[in-house]
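Supplementary notes (optional reading)

For those who missed the lab, this is the record we used. Protein: Oxygenase MpaB family protein. Length: 317 residues.
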Amino acid sequence: MREASTSGHPMGADPGLFGPSSVTWQMHGDPMMWVAGVRALYLQALHPRAVRGVMQNSDFRKDAWGRLMRTANFVGTTTYGTTEVAEHAGARVRKIHTMLKATDPDTGERYGVDEPELLLWVHCAEIDSYLHVARRSGFRLTDDLADRYVAEHRESARLVGLDPADVPASTAELAAYFERVRPELAAGPEARDVDDFLRRPPTHPLLIPARALLWRRVANLAYASLPPYAHELYGRTAPPPATVTRRLVTTGTILRTIPARLRWQLPPKHILRAMARLGPGARPAPYKLDRRAAILDGPGRAKRGNGGGGGRWRTPG
């Protein structure tokens, strides 16, 4: 029998950068993270300099699936992997970024994709999307726990090359960041390309019915969950906020009925490997945070959040 530490994990086992006591560990095991990831792509594409760096340095139109999966793998690795593996993944990303440049077609300016303001935009769009979709779809987080989640991800910001001191450490700071950067946002040609792909991704003819049935619903829901200013920039309307919230809650409820062990069997199995390393007590589960939420919020109290655009929404408590 393996000896356990005071934390309940095997002695000498590395919990990684976040560990099982973090909000990140519990929340990133939620299936709504896939919808959140698509929302992040929509939001990130609205920063012309940032999305230009992506489009000019990758074949996004042909490899968007690959990019989405690589991002998911990076998040899974840094959340559930060992410290060494997470640091290695971060170093690889930083090295790649130092080699990539983009050109502003209007001014001819050449700039690096690792400029801090671009890295910060990508980071904040991701964290905002993960937190927004999770909470709005019914994943219980008090405001204190939401702040803790944002603060935890100063660590992931460090991995990609940012100074944690320059990264929002609370939901209020995150909302203030979006207010500050909004004048720089626009739906340029690259953003339109991202929108076109996410609405109609190329696929094998035999899979077109599945694309219409499954993917389109995911993409539409992700788009609908964006802040109102994003809808205005893209020039496409979205259902009323109450309708979007209801659809997010319904989707989250359905996906969460799928047994976690079955969901976690899908490659690359980050969570299962973490549980094998740390023991069954490391299993991500919302109830581990929900106990604290019940104490702080009280029964029946609604959650509230700010989706980066200043608009408030409510989900059942």
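If you only remember one thing from this example: Confidence is low (pLDDT under 50) at residues 1-6, 293-317.
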